[in-house]
Specification:
Helices cover about 40% and strands about 20% of the residues. The protein is built from 10 helices and 10 strands. Helix 4 runs antiparallel to helix 7 and helix 6 runs antiparallel to helix 7.
Length: about 350
């Protein structure tokens, strides 16, 4: 099969990203972040879509430049169709459709969640990719799920959160601690100098492989309110221990269900994906328990964990090989089943 060069575009939330892939090798992976949301304590959809409109052309141009590829060399364009913020998705979708029409190349729609999982097959994501079937714990600000991956495009969600996602829990608890948004990476950093056993928080009792993270958020809130009544400086004086204890609790909730699923389904290839898979505590836990659990663990490079176009390009490449193209009339969708 001759070499394929594909442009990937990602705009599902607040990162505008473009990447060029040749076969399974990423030649460029460019992203523009939107700092404006920090002052609001969360992503503002209207501001996000406006920023995507400003960022998308410079980001795509930079991706071509860094890859040293001309526009007429690409075979297809992959784009995130969903799930995500509709206004943000519309920017990427419209741009991809316009460019595909002007270059007369096929258009390929990509499911954002599928892309997080299939990022493991990018050439430099892992020393070797997982083998089918494998389990993938997909954890981000908007999603937390255990996915049984039977093949590239045969996936089944066997467990998911019934309320908050794990990343959302980190951000909401960070807000209780008066940390900046997004709080997840800050909690991770502060936890490194804390005692993870300093404080205990309630863990949910959920059926099968499902998750719930609203309970731990409430548990932390009530605990903090009680302690602040006794000592107004409690958070400031205990911030490292608080972050370490919260992080340990969330990781244990995640891993309890993943371990249960792996044991009951007798699967040893275990992957993690999504923004929260960048969390150092989660990575360390998996590495530390690798031998005890008998797992082959797959943890992608940091640059492929957060929202990025490299993973979109990877899925587009797999679909291109299978002739899975998209009609130019397709539209973005906020909800898009795996």
């Amino acid at each position: 099969m001759s070499s394929s060069i594909i442009l990937g575009i990602e705009s599902s939330c607040d990162d505008t990203s473009a990447a060029i892939i040749q076969d399974n090798k990423i030649l460029s992976n460019i992203a523009a972040n939107q700092q404006i949301h920090n002052e609001y304590g969360g992503v503002v959809p209207e501001l996000a879509s406006r920023a995507h409109q400003q960022n998308i052309i410079p980001v795509v141009e930079k991706a071509f430049s860094k890859a040293n590829i001309q526009q007429n060399e690409i075979c297809a364009i992959g784009f995130t169709r969903g799930p995500g913020l509709l206004g943000s998705l519309l920017v990427g979708t419209s741009f991809a459709k316009s460019l595909a029409m002007s270059l007369d190349v096929p258009l390929i729609e990509v499911n954002h969640l599928q892309a997080h999982i299939l990022a493991h097959f990018i050439e430099d994501a892992n020393p070797t990719p997982p083998t089918f079937p494998f389990l993938c714990l997909t954890v981000s600000g908007g999603h937390t799920m255990i996915v049984l991956v039977k093949d590239y495009f045969d996936m089944e969600i066997i467990g998911k959160t019934i309320d908050d996602a794990a990343g959302e829990a980190f951000d909401k608890i960070g807000k209780i601690f008066d940390l900046d948004y997004p709080a997840g990476p800050i909690v991770d950093r502060l936890a490194k100098d804390g005692n993870p056993d300093a404080f205990k928080f309630n863990k949910p009792k959920m059926e099968a492989y499902d998750y719930s993270f609203s309970g731990i958020k409430t548990s932390v809130l009530y605990f903090i309110q009680k302690e602040i009544r006794k000592d107004p400086d409690f958070i400031k004086d205990n911030i490292n221990d608080l972050c370490a204890s919260v992080q340990k609790s969330i990781i244990e909730i995640l891993m309890d269900k993943l371990e249960k699923a792996a044991k009951e389904l007798n699967i040893n290839d275990i992957a993690i994906a999504g923004g929260v898979s960048a969390n150092s505590g989660l990575r360390q836990y998996m590495e530390a328990n690798r031998e005890k659990l008998g797992w082959n663990i797959f943890i992608p490079k940091f640059e492929y964990t957060t929202d990025n176009a490299a993973m979109i390009a990877m899925v587009a490449k797999l679909k291109y090989e299978r002739g899975k193209f998209t009609d130019i009339k397709t539209t973005a969708t906020a909800k898009y089943d795996l």
